[in-house]
Amino acid sequence: MSQFDIQFTFNGETISAISGQSVGAALLAAKQRTLRKTRFNQKGRGVFCGIGVCFDCLVVIDGASNQRACITEVISGMKVQTQVGTNA
Amino acid sequence: MHNVVIVGGGPAGLSAALTAAVAGAPVLLLDSNPRLGGQYWRTPADNFGDQNENHFDLATGLKLINSVKAQSNIQVLSGAQIWSASHKDGVSTLRVIYQGSEKIINTGNLILATGAYDRSLPFPGWDIPGVMTPGGVQSLIKGHGVVAGKRVVVAGSGPFLLPVAAGLVKSGADVVELLEANKSWRWASSILVLLENLSKIKEGFYYIEAISKGKVRARFGQAVVGAYAGENGELESVDIAKIDRNFKIKKVRNIKCDVAAIGWGFTADTSLAGALGCKQVVAKDESVVVLIDSKQQTSITGVFAAGEITGIGGSELSMIEGEIAGKSAAKFVGCAVDISRSDLIIRAKKQRFAAALIKAYPIKSGWRSWLDEQTVLCRCEEVDLADLKDSIVELGATDSRTAKLLTRCGMGLCQGRICGRFVVDLVADQLNISPTDIDRIAAVSRPIITPIPLGVLAAGE
Amino acid sequence: MKNPDAIVIGAGVVGACCALSLTNAGLKVLIIDRGPVASGTTGAGEGNILVSDKGPGAELTLAIRSRDLWFDINTDIGGGFELEAKGGVVVSRSAKGISDLKKLSVLQKENGVEVIELDGAGLRKIEPYLSESVEYGVLYPGDAQCQPMLAAAQIIRAVKKRGGSFIQGENVIAINSNAGSLIGITTDKNNYSCPIVINATGTWAGEIAKLAGSHLPIMPRRGFILVTAPAPKIVHHKVYDADYVANVASSDADLQSSAVVEGTASGTILIGASRERVGFKADLDISILRQLARQAISLFPVLSSIGLLRAYRGFRPYAPDHLPVIGEDANISGLWHAAGHEGAGIGLSPATGELITAQITNQSTFIDPTPFSPKRFQGSEYVAV
Ligand SMILES: Cc1cc2nc3c(=O)[nH]c(=O)nc-3n(C[C@H](O)[C@H](O)[C@H](O)COP(=O)(O)OP(=O)(O)OC[C@H]3O[C@@H](n4cnc5c(N)ncnc54)[C@H](O)[C@@H]3O)c2cc1C
Ligand SMILES: Cc1cc2nc3c(=O)[nH]c(=O)nc-3n(C[C@H](O)[C@H](O)[C@H](O)COP(=O)(O)OP(=O)(O)OC[C@H]3O[C@@H](n4cnc5c(N)ncnc54)[C@H](O)[C@@H]3O)c2cc1C
Ligand code: FES
């Protein structure tokens, strides 16, 4: 198994990851399971299908919302935030 | 000679690419994933090292992937997502999002191998973080080296639960329950079919052995029918029910877990085929699949299809279908190649196995009784059962399309990929009718296959 | 339903509003549609209720009245169709466009439309993401918006609660009359006798007229709308380029579009709509989607990163003179037409219902109905395509 070799932030907190991982996988590995709050009922959601189909793992990445954490490769220095409704 | 264009880099697309290229046709292979392999042979980036541990038979996959890469007349575009497509006068136009901009590909010879994704059924709490699909749990392990949780319940129906449970055990997770909703692992129900598919027995034993090492024992006739969140809003426990033959709840117990991986087989993703105008039909398991002839040709001349989009049947059937489609497409562009008798025999064998599986793992209508009024149906638009009923009882919807437009159910970002299939059943249930094939096919119609940024759209010609 | 006082053919927004108005006037109404509620153009369009895009004349009077009636209906039936008085902003970036817009807004103001002129700074105060290139615009606080399918469904629900009924899945195949007077209709399943029938079949109204031996030149004008993924609040009003007003009045067959950009209650942004006369041509035309996307981005550059999720296509019912057809048939008494509202059917439907009902029940009308009369096509050379 490879070692952590990059870092990014989730809601300001530093998270370590292995390059090649998806944002969603790296966050799950760091015990971050709630990735967004829904638009109408503010319910927590996380990775569901894991392969880019369900759009439930939406996060805000470097200011851009509606990004699927499960299929977006994590990059060193990325700023990831919980998506609340449609915003960070 | 013209290119054969192939969409999908899973078992079917890879087999098709290699076969067509070996027959002499130049191939362009498009796949949305960063690495070839599709769902079955999903692998992480190279820096993760040897992945054999996480697979039953990665060797076959790697061999195929490497052959494809080594073949000089195959061009591979990974990370290429088709967002829209159309077909006119013998030419298919694929509009592809690739590295942040749009590429247009026109071809007269196309093979579709877009695969499938997990089939989900709703139940109270299925939207809580921690409830996942088995495929999702699997892809985290195979593609990212991440185990989704510590105490995992694996449930649903179908043989795919086995590799997922096995993968979890091997990765060190505690599989606290492995639940098959049907009465037994009913592979054995058709000995003949099994005997002609011996590799499948081997695969089955491989998984069972792995699971046994984790002291996991499968239980039958049981299902997860409720999920509960702890204070942090994340999964804390699930209700497990003994269910009858029709999936109606008999008796419920609660068990603590942090992940529940629940799946009910697969749903083919025929969006691209539908956009092109290929005829789709409703299969025995009520999923919508692409209609093909014996040459794997769709209703459109020069457009072929292979793998799960023609019917769920597993990686081996996908491969032989891919090979046949590859030959057909190569022949179509003038290569001297023919489908052999043995190709057809192998495909028929695998098809019998697939058919036996579908028969062995039926999804019975009793699941509808697990829902309560507040159960979310459309996860994207947060439409619950009460909303759906209201659109029928109060607003007079008499078909799933109208119910969808009145409630937004299925109109969110996933475009009904998750809920569309079961909403058709729920609407029909409310109206006391059976869904028509037209309803089912309409529910998977997605002319815009995946969202495209307006800026990318605007920049195209 | 036995012996209805009136039958409305068509369960789109126009049919729904006619039915509600007739019901409220005390008639027992039966609505018949070959499909489900709002399965025609009503389920394929946007929900703009505009006063801003109409120059002085009968249609503007109808639009102003109709806009107010929408709010009355909202109160009357208890809402449920996302009616919102959000206001429209019309902008222009060319010298000619600006001077035309100024002239138009002066005339509109004289006719009772509230207009507020805004400069670049004023515009960006109410639409912070509007392109820096926009320096002039007019705010129309009267413009409103609803969700048309829900509107039709909620109105029909109210009609049913008030004693009316709705039969779906029956195709009207004959209009029956006797000595110039209507006696009923025949569907593919049943016969209905009734002295009053309202033809609210939108783009297909010409076919119903034909069944009655009359001529109604209603034709389809195709339109596409883009629907984005749910997005942060970027657009606060319905915002469009003044070219749109020119397009609406045009008879040119070629593709025209001028993006009207607006946010919806569900968070999606709608960008619509194109206008073309290509008959009932159904295929998704990507070049039109691109054009709409370009126009929307030129108004709101940040839209560039927002994802397109769906595109709708619908066929607006239009008459050669671009005015709706509201009134009694030229040949058969008891047969009434309420159709041909083109790209304004959502906005104009309540006033249409009121106008029809007033004429049927011999009440005074709020406007002289002559310009809308189907009789205007008598002996005309127009042929429906
Ligand atoms: C998450 C998951 C895990 C699975 N794991 C196993 C397993 O362990 N064992 C097993 O026997 N079976 C597994 N399956 C079942 C599996 O689908 C089949 O056995 C096999 O992978 C099917 O092969 P295929 O070539 O038909 O499709 P897939 O392998 O699904 O490949 C389809 C490919 O097409 C691409 N694609 C789809 N649409 C587009 C588009 N519009 N543009 C560009 N590319 C597109 C996809 O990204 C994908 O790479 C799994 C399925 C899923 C969903
Ligand atoms: C892209 C687009 C955008 C638009 N945007 C707007 C907007 O923002 N604001 C606005 O005001 N308007 C807009 N419109 C216009 C508006 O949608 C229409 O004017 C309006 O919906 C017409 O309503 P209707 O009830 O007359 O017709 P429809 O909604 O088409 O209803 C007619 C009904 O008659 C039924 N029918 C037809 N023939 C028969 C038969 N023989 N027997 C039984 N039933 C029959 C049909 O099934 C249908 O349900 C837009 C239109 C389009 C296409
Ligand atoms: S988890 Fe389904 S899209 Fe990411």
Keywords, please?
heterotrimer; B: 461 residues; FAD/NAD(P)-binding domain; Arc Repressor Mutant, subunit A; 3 domains; five-stranded parallel β-sheet; globular; C: 385 residues; alpha/beta; D-Amino Acid Oxidase, Chain A, domain 2; 2 domains; 9 helices; binds flavin-adenine dinucleotide; binds FE2/S2 (inorganic) cluster
Descriptive notes:
The complex is a heterotrimer of chains A (about 90), B (about 450) and C (about 375). Chain A is mostly beta strands. Chain A has a single domain, classed as 2Fe-2S iron-sulphur cluster binding domain, sarcosine oxidase, alpha subunit, N-terminal domain (Ubiquitin-like (UB roll), Roll), CATH 3.10.20.440. Chain A is about 10% helix and about 35% strand. Chain A is built from one helix and seven strands; from the N terminus they run E-E-H-E-E-E-E-E. Chain A has one helix spanning about 25-30; strands at about 5-10, 15, 35, 45, 60, 65-70, 80-85. In chain A, strands 1, 2, 3, 4, 5, 6 and 7 form a seven-stranded mixed β-sheet that branches. Chain A starts with 5 loop residues before the first strand and ends with a strand. The mean pLDDT of chain A is about 95. Helices cover about 35% and strands about 25% of the residues of chain B. Chain B has 14 helices and 23 strands. Chain B has a five-stranded parallel β-sheet, covered by helices on one side. The longest helix of chain B is centred in the C-terminal third of the chain and has 20 residues, at about 340-360. The two termini of chain B are about 25 Å apart. Chain C is α/β, with parallel strands linked by helices. Chain C is about 30% helix and about 25% strand. In chain C, helix 1 (about 15-25) packs parallel to helix 5 (about 150-160), helix 1 (about 15-25) runs parallel beside helix 9 (about 345-360) and helix 2 (about 60-75) packs across helix 9 (about 345-360). The longest helix of chain C is centred in the first third of the chain and has 20 residues, at about 60-75. Chain C is globular. The interface of A and B includes residues 50 and 52 of A. Strand 23 of chain B pairs antiparallel with strand 17 (about 305-320) of chain C.
What is this structure, in a nutshell?
By secondary structure, chain B is of the alpha/beta class. Chain B has 14 helices and 23 strands. Chain B has a five-stranded parallel sheet, with helices on one face. A five-stranded parallel sheet of chain B has the order 9-16-10-11-12, with helices on one face.
